[in-house]
Amino acid sequence: MSELPPCPDAALMRELSETRRGFHREPELSWTEYQTTAKLCQALEGLGFDIVWGASLYPRAPGNPPDRDTDRQAWERAEQALGSDNPYLTAMRNNRTGLVATLDGNGPGRVFGFRFDIDALPITESEDPAHPPSAQGFASQHPGIMHACGHDGHLTIGLGLARRLAASRDRWSGRVHLFFQPAEEVAGGGAVFADLPQLAEVDLFTTLHLGILDRYRIVFDATWIAARIYDVVYRGLSSHAGNAPQAGRNALLAACQAVQGLYALPRHSAGMSRVNVGRFRSDNAHNVIADEVRFRYEVRGGDNAICDFMAEAAERVLDGAARMHGVDWERSVFAEFSSYPNSRALAERIAALALALGLPEALLQESFQVSASEDAGFLIQRVREQGGEATHLVLGSPVGGGHHSPTFDFDEQLLGWGVLLFERLVMEG
C-alpha cells in the first residue's frame, strides 16, 4: 500500500489538528449543528469573510427535521456553551444551521465554490484505548453522538482554507464561496443549499470526502450512487385475532408481504442497484389483527435513472401487497440523494495540481464510484447545469472500524493536503 507523505507545512498541520480535535469533541446531529455553525461564523467573520447564516440563509424550510426532544437538547447544550444571547445562535432557531462565507480577492476573476458538510451521527464513540480520539483525549463529549464519517475533518479543511485565503487575498483574483452545509447524513442540507443564490454564481465547484477507500488514495473524479428513502404506512382494520379474524384487514401481513417483495426486486444490469428496509414498527397486542404498520426503506442506483427504476418497481410492490390484503397505504419521501457526473477537465486539473504539490503519482486515482450516497450531488448538478465545472474528491485513508462505526478515525495528514490542494486551485485562478 502506498504511503501518504506528511504535509510539508508543519505549522499548518498543528493548526488543523487542533481545530479538528476541538470540533470532534463537540459533535452535533443533522439540523442541530448550532454550536458548530456559531463557532464557524465567529471565526470566518473574524477573518474578513462576509457570512450569511440563520433564517436569512434559507429560501425554504429545512426538510426532515429532528424530533423535538433531540432539537431541544441540542439547543440547550448550545445555549449553555455559547450563552443564550449569542448573536449567531439566536438567528438559527428552527434548525436554520450552516452558513455561506464569501471573500473577494484582489480583482475580478472566477468564482470558486467549496462545500464542507458539518453534521455528526447518532453513534456512541468507542472508549477503546486503541481508538486514537479516546487515547489522545479528544473523543466526543456528547453522549450518543460522534463524528463517525469525517465531517469534522471536512469543516476543518474549510476553515483552514479560509485562513490561508484571507492571509493571501492580495495574491489571488476572483471570489470564493465556502458552503458549510448541515444535514448531509439525512440528505436534507444539499437540496436546500443547491438553491442558494451564492451557488448560482459559481464557475468552479469542488467538494470532498475523507476515508471511503480504507487506503491511501487521492481520487479526483469520485461519483456516488443515487438514493431515494421513503417512509411507508399501511392502514388496515383491527379485530380480535381469535373471535373474529375474518373481520380484520391485516396491515402487518401486508407490510411483511411488501418487505419480502422489496428484497425480491430484480437488479439492473446497467449499474449498481440496492434495496434495504431499515426500520419496521407495529405497536399491537398479540391477539389483535394489526391495523397500522410503519416502515422505512431505501432504493439506490448507480445513477439517477437506475435509482428511478428501482423506486418505480418498489412502488408497484407496495401497492400490490396493499391490494392483496385490502389495506390502504401511503408513502412519503424522507430523503433523496442525487448522482451526477463530474467535470472531467476540472478533475484532471486538480490531479495536476496534486503532482505539482509533491503528492506521489502512485497515490493518485482518476475515478471511483462509491457504493454509498452523498447529497453534494445536488450542488454538483446545479453548478454543471448552469455551465460551471464541478467535481468531488476523495482523500482516502485507513479509517479504523469503517465509516459510521464507533472506532472511525482518519489520518490527519490528509487535512493539510486538502487545504493545500484547494488553495492552489484558487491561487492559479
Which helices and strands, and how do they pair?
Layout: H1 10-25, H2 34-46, E1 50-53, H3 68-82, H4 87-90, E2 99-104, E3 111-117, H5 132-135, H6 151-167, E4 175-181, H7 189-193, H8 197-200, E5 204-210, E6 217-224, E7 226-235, H9 251-263, E8 273-281, E9 292-301, H10 304-325, E10 328-337, H11 344-357, E11 364-370, H12 377-385, E12 389-396, H13 413-428
Helix pairs in contact: 1-6, 6-13, 9-10, 11-13
Structure commentary:
This protein is of the alpha/beta class. The protein has 2 domains: 10-225 and 339-428, Aminopeptidase (3-Layer(aba) Sandwich); 226-337, Alpha-Beta Plaits, CATH 3.30.70. 35% of the residues lie in helices and 22% in strands. The chain is built from 13 helices and 12 strands. The chain has helices spanning 10-25, 34-46, 68-82, 87-90, 132-135, 151-167, 189-193, 197-200, 251-263, 304-325, 344-357, 377-385, 413-428, and strands at 50-53, 99-104, 111-117, 175-181, 204-210, 217-224, 226-235, 273-281, 292-301, 328-337, 364-370, 389-396. The strands form 2 sheets. Strands 1-2-4-3-5-12-6-11 form an 8-stranded mixed β-sheet, sandwiched between helices. The longest helix has 22 residues, at 304-325.
Helix/sheet category:
alpha/beta
**Major sheet description:** 8 strands, mixed
Characterize the overall form.
globular
CATH superfamily of the largest domain: Zn peptidases
Round the mean pLDDT to the nearest integer and report it: 96
E-strand count: 12
Taking strands numbered 1, 2, ... along the chain, how are they ordered across the largest sheet? 1-2-4-3-5-12-6-11
